[in-house]
Predict the 3D structure of the following.
Amino acid sequence: MSKSAFYTAKGDFGDTGRLAGTERIAKSSALIEAIGTIDEATSAIGLARALSQSDRLRTALPTVQRHVYGIMSHLSAVPQARDQYVGVTDEDLTWLQDLIADIEKHLAPLKDFVLPGDSQAGAAFHVARTIVRRAERRLVAFAEGEPGLGEANLAYMNRLSSLMFVAALYENITRGAQSELARRSAES
């Protein structure tokens, strides 16, 4: 049997290890579902980043993705090791909120829901937003059964979907596209 640096084959029977521990858990567990969905979210954020025309977003999003990886480490760690893998801090949450506020300055107030698809990057941010929302739901479901998760981690995932929303609107503006509203206007 050949060896690879890219796989261990330890999970071939449907279980996986936790960070800083020796126990193995089922890959179908609520924990692994939460981590996997958060991983999916950061990949969607990466796609949106690759399509973005905004220097501000392209500069900030790697930090966001690093924060999200920190949250995954926090979750992956066995409970007694979570102090070593804090995930995100209150300062990280404040940084994210400040980023959202900075982008919001450039947006007109919304009076309705928007239909995704006015620009490629905007649509990618909307897809990332929906995946982040699902990741947040998975995280909350896991947290209900395992207390001791850092509160900033839950709040960060909640705010992250707001960032994806304002980023989508901002991308539309940078491309000269008007966000299509969900309801038809009286002129339509």
The beta strands are 15-17, 24-26, 114-115, 180-181. Helices lie at 30-51, 55-76, 90-104, 120-145, 151-174. The longest strand covers residues 15-17. The CA atoms of residues 125 and 168 lie 5 Å apart.
